[in-house]
Amino acid sequence: MHGAVALASVCAGVKLTARDIAGSEAQAESRRLVAYVSAPAELAESDLQKFLAEALPSYMLPERIIHVDDIPLTRNGKVDFAALPDPASVRPLLSTPFAEPQSDLEVRLRQIWSGILRIENIGVNDQFISLGGDSLRAMLILGQLQTLLGVRADFRLVLNGTIRSLAASIEGRTELNPCTALTCRKLNRSPLTHLQEHLWFLAQLDPSARNYIIQGGLRIKGNISLARFNRAWTEVIHSHQALSARFIDKDGPVQCFDAPPCTNLELIDVSHLTSSEAEELIAQFRRTELKDNFDLGQDHLFRARMVRLGPDNHLILITAHEIIVDAWSISVLLRDLQQRYVDAVAFCPENRASLSGYAAWEKRHVSPEALESQRHYWRRQIGDDPPVLSLGTGRARPQTNSYRGASHPVLLGGDLSSRVREFARRNSCTIDNVKLYVLDARLKRVPVGASGELCIAGRCLSAGYWQDQDRTDRCFLPNPYDGGQYDVLYRSGDIARISTSGLLEICGRSDNQIKVRGFRIEPEEVEVALESHPAIAKAAVFAEGIDEDRRLTASLEPARENLSSREILAHLRNRLPSPMVPTAFRLVDSVPLTTSGKIDRARLSSVPYREIETSPSAEPRTRNERVLARIWEDLLGAERVGIDSSFFDIGGDSLLSVRCVTLARSPSTSFIEHRPSGSWRPGKRRRHPTTWLPRTAYCLCPP
């Protein structure tokens, strides 16, 4: 079969041709490669796709392979491309019979699928993958579902499903509320996107960090008109609003687009240098750009220069902060540059959504509930404490990250490539993702719908727990599957099951591990630390609340009277990291036990208790402490903040901590207290002003 497809001369009944489909838009992003094959009907499109994937590089793979009775020819014997059928009108040869939609929702879903997959005749029982769908097209469909129908569907329901199964999953929902479409209007000021908020927060923590600076280059081979190129460059830079952004704090972070972006493309001629000298100078330019830090409060967060290596050889060096661009948006910019240089008339960026428009749309339509749902989903997927990736280099990790990286491609042979693809197909995963095994106590697969322990194997699995051989021996076991490809199996402790729709559902834990504020905590470890205090006879630790309000609570049987929270905290802070220190302590007459003598954790929250003696926080004494206490009260909605109050214990979070520091630094906040230079003893004068925070303010971020 494979030989027949690869060489038409092997079998006269098989012919293969390919067509570059541009579509009516004639834009670069609408071009696609489609193959037409005259072959026996039993050759499925998926089989042909697999074969081509082994024989061709990815950029040469056709989007679809369409069966035709014969390849049409012109009178001089060449392929008559105009006579080939329109790909959109041809349904792939599938094993499932064609079925029409039976409801309005199925009709609308088919319209969405047809628009993304560019196939008109889609049956409601046709598998998305069999229609040529992939993860990128699945994401596009999810976007259409949210925009047109107001539905947030699970990614896997599209990738592994049909129109009918997708309709069934969303038919009973009552929140069908289409989102307002993005507008092309540009705003002078807008909120930040959620991703930008994350990057802005990190920049506030460490303004000197360079790990979110991206840098790249574009080689241009061939003779170009510099004047024409500069006109194209200027117009394209102006069309990308993000390149003019700067960021200020105005009752929270805001991005402004009140100044035009810098379109100056400095030209540096190094054509008189040797090749090695030119490359060394380019490397020096790169290092210089990386040393010059970005001030998010100013513009010019995007820098570029052109290096002339010869009359037909140029290089554009780009350095930017990732808060305004990423690798994908740079690729769009470069594509725009090519199109504008080749055909200025065809370049029409006015119909695109702007960054400011998208940020405002996201602020309006992406609700806190949706974000919490996504956060909860990803915490289930990757855990709260993912293992450190071991690269197997034989070198110790440096104490300070350099953030330097590199890629080294490795070419796999045809046989190994086939085995890897077959492995991915059998286990319903991509080539790059770890296997997510659901096994019973004997490490045997459980049937669909039954619960078992989630076990993981793959190339990104760590070697074990750091300095904890006992846990490593319990959780990292020899892998009985895969014929030795991945020889270690990790027992995650999560209880899970595979649903009838193919989704992995997390049902709970097989141990007592709990998650608090993004940290995995073993209650037994905290209990051992508590019981090492001579005044505590017995301790039991549990979590109260949900998600961000989840807190660690300890129930204590005291061994003596007058036990205070201050002495317990002092004891624990010498033995446990901060995330494992309980934030609430309760005194109980006895810790509830099961009949086997173990802690009855299900009853802990309902046991009668009395409050432990707390040490009141002292009132602010100086003017500075009073001003800062008011800032904390306003930000956190707290009634009374003392100088020993813990920021996070009274409702603070990471983003609010940055807001607190910003307000403290604001010139409008006048609370500078002059203290003496040299010694810090009271009574002397300090030469330079110092900003003061309450005593616990130095710990603004959880470790």
Task: Describe, in short, the structure shown.
The chain has 703 residues and is α+β, with helices and mostly antiparallel strands. The protein has 18 helices and 22 strands. It has 6 domains: 2-89, ANL, C-terminal domain (GMP Synthetase, Chain A, domain 3), CATH 3.30.300; 104-170, Non-ribosomal Peptide Synthetase Peptidyl Carrier Protein, Chain A (Orthogonal Bundle); 189-365, Chloramphenicol acetyltransferase-like domain (Chloramphenicol Acetyltransferase, 2-Layer Sandwich); 432-504, Luciferase, Domain 3 (Luciferase, domain 3, Roll); 514-611, 2-Layer Sandwich (GMP Synthetase, Chain A, domain 3); 623-691, Non-ribosomal Peptide Synthetase Peptidyl Carrier Protein, Chain A (Orthogonal Bundle).
Structural summary, described in words:
The protein has 703 residues and is of the alpha+beta class. The protein folds into six domains: 2-89, ANL, C-terminal domain (GMP Synthetase, Chain A, domain 3, 2-Layer Sandwich); 104-170, ACP-like (Non-ribosomal Peptide Synthetase Peptidyl Carrier Protein, Chain A, Orthogonal Bundle); 189-365, Chloramphenicol acetyltransferase-like domain (Chloramphenicol Acetyltransferase, 2-Layer Sandwich); 432-504, Luciferase, domain 3 (Roll), CATH 2.30.38; 514-611, ANL, C-terminal domain (GMP Synthetase, Chain A, domain 3, 2-Layer Sandwich), CATH 3.30.300.30; 623-691, Orthogonal Bundle (Non-ribosomal Peptide Synthetase Peptidyl Carrier Protein, Chain A). It contains 18 helices and 22 strands. It has helices at 2-6, 45-55, 104-117, 135-149, 155-159, 163-170, 194-205, 226-239, 275-291, 327-342, 355-365, 368-382, 414-426, 469-475, 523-531, 565-573, 623-636, 654-665; strands at 15-21, 32-38, 64-67, 189-190, 213-221, 246-249, 253-256, 266-269, 302-310, 313-321, 452-456, 476-478, 488-498, 504-509, 514-516, 519-521, 536-544, 551-558, 584-587, 610-611, 672-674, 689-691. It has a four-stranded mixed sheet, with helices on one face. α16 (565-573) links the parallel β18 (551-558) and β19. α3 crosses α4 (135-149) and α8 (226-239) packs across α10 (327-342). The chain is globular and about 105 Å long. Mean pLDDT is 78; it is low at 1-14, 22-29 and 671-703.
